[in-house]
Structure prediction request, 355 residues.
Amino acid sequence: MTEQQILEILQDVRHPGRGDKSVVELGMVHSIDIKEDGVSVTLAFSKRRDPLSEYLIGSARAALVRALPEGMKSEVLTTVIEESAPKKKNNTMDLDFEQVKDIKHIIGIASGKGGVGKSTVAVNMAVALARLGYKVGLADADVYGPSVPLMTGTEDTAPNAVEEDGKEYFLPIEKYGVKWMSIGYFAQKGQALIWRGPMACNALKQMILQVIWGELDFLLIDMPPGTGDIHISLVSDVPMEGAVIVTTPQAVALADVEKGVNMFRNPSVNKPIYGLVENMAWFTPEELPENKYYIFGKGGGIAMADTLGIDLLGQIPIVQSIRECGDSGEPAALGSRPDSLAFIELAKALADKLD
Prediction:
């Protein structure tokens, strides 16, 4: 493996905010260290924090993993280039709460496990709140599986970057009356990003704190499923007011709800739970809107909410149109079917609790 071959691999790492040029074209490849068992690449950034730095690091790591021979290790390091100061490593972020100071409520949408439709609920709740007349934004913090671009039909859109007071910020994508931001806007289709814990935490903070949201009544944060370092970092470093937990009636999902609730109730986190949303509560055929079939069990969400001492904010039925709308990029909450109305009622319940 030669240095030229490594540079060719890195040609695939594009900077969306700088004309989609590669890190090689932009002169960001500071050094390449090739050893018998691995390759180390150092990317150079200016002292002014690049808003896409974590994305570029993850993309470079992914490109190397794909292209290097099996068994060959790879790492991506960073260095700061200054005109009048010695080079030094800088992996910290200088972000504050300036861009979220005009947001009334920052609410996390969480789940104890994956596969319960958390992102579907988050996207449709945002649209439903907008339909009720509120100013709404949604930050897709699920860095491992960002789905907001697909569910909102904004896959081919990239947020612009602007400079304010010497700092660079993102402008969110606006559609359906909601401001959207997701790491998925910066990844190429089908690209798998490889994140270490601290890198993922930094990327998430950028997706929230380095965005010009403006005045909002609600900013919903679609959190990664489960509990762990990323979740603790989010609630510690972002002024999140509280959370809504999403589950299904299945016993395996409900068993994880308690873990999620306990995380927010932990003294080191101490954030209120505004309620539980039971997704896929029953199946309703579109041609028989009055019929309910409890294919995943009945009343599990109600019982769990009662056990944990939290409110059941809403129950969302399984309707084929929810899946079809999500795949087509038109959220179900835009319509007037039973599933659409369920999301409107859910949004009302949250708004009434907080306003």
User: Anything to note?
Assistant: Residues 83-93 have pLDDT under 50 and may be disordered. The first strand starts at residue 14 and ends at 15.
